[in-house]
Amino acid sequence: MKDNNYGTAPLYLLQPSSIFTFAAQTLELATQTLGYRDTNNTSSSTSTTNSSFSDDDSTSTRHRKRDEQSGLDVYTLDEVARHDTMNDCWIILYDKVFDVTKFLLDHPGGEDVMLEHAGRDATIAFRGVGHSLPALQALDTYLMGILPPEERVFTGEGPCQWSTL
Length: 165
Ligand code: HEM
What we know:
28% of the residues lie in helices and 15% in strands. It has 165 residues and is of the alpha+beta class. The strands form two sheets. The protein has a five-stranded mixed sheet with strand order 3-7-6-5-4. The chain has a two-stranded antiparallel sheet with strand order 1-2. The radius of gyration is 17 Å and the shape is globular. 22% of the residues are buried. Protoporphyrin IX containing FE binds next to helix 3, helix 4 and helix 5.
């Protein structure tokens, strides 16, 4: 994953022009991490809209569907909902599935806020906190899959997107 050039410098120490660069880098990083399209660069579009599935039956031991566009395994809302405990905690952020079990006790915001969303979508709460760039970078560590297209809700052009973080 690409580092930004500003390290952990507080925003107020950056020049106004640097802040825009910083914001652009943050957005690019988030877009890369979660595989969403860059709306200004359709040529490198990674939109999950209209993406297709492949049934991963190539091996006899594996039957998990894989999303062709993102390369991620597909998990349904029903499946995610079964992982809603302290010992087995998945959450959904922007239609992607994260296994945060090992992160619960290390989460700077505490395990409680995370457990409140265990087994379901936590996007609005996650967004509401205004997580930092290091927090966005950490997401990649816990990413494990994506919802099937028909269960995704962040595929439109609405105001709540990675591109408007
Ligand atoms: C994998 C998912 C998550 C990661 C990697 C993550 C990471 C972090 C990190 C690194 C911080 C420290 C502050 C910062 O750097 O922004 C933080 C704070 C916090 N997080 Fe999360 N977080 C996740 C999910 C959530 C969720 C789902 C909630 C639900 C509400 C949440 C609520 C909070 C709160 C309330 C704080 C404290 C903010 C403060 O003290 O100002 N986080 N998180």
